[in-house]
Known about the structure:
Blueprint: H1 6-21, H2 25-34, H3 42-67
InterPro entries: TBK1-IKBKE_adapters (IPR051891)
Amino acid sequence: MELINKSDMNSALDNDICVLTHKKADCLQRRDQHTPFSASSGEASVASHFELVTAYEDIKKHLKETEK
């Protein structure tokens, strides 16, 4: 079983947070450049965002439980 370095995990979580909260300007620029959306994709985008946030919260909860 391969162990994950804590700094690598923090870096991965920072990347996920960037995707979920859009706090980093460069993240927004890259997202806008590489992910074109049609006008009709708004509902799908909202649903996808909700699913990502829900999955992220579930993973975060599971990680906290396993650290105990």
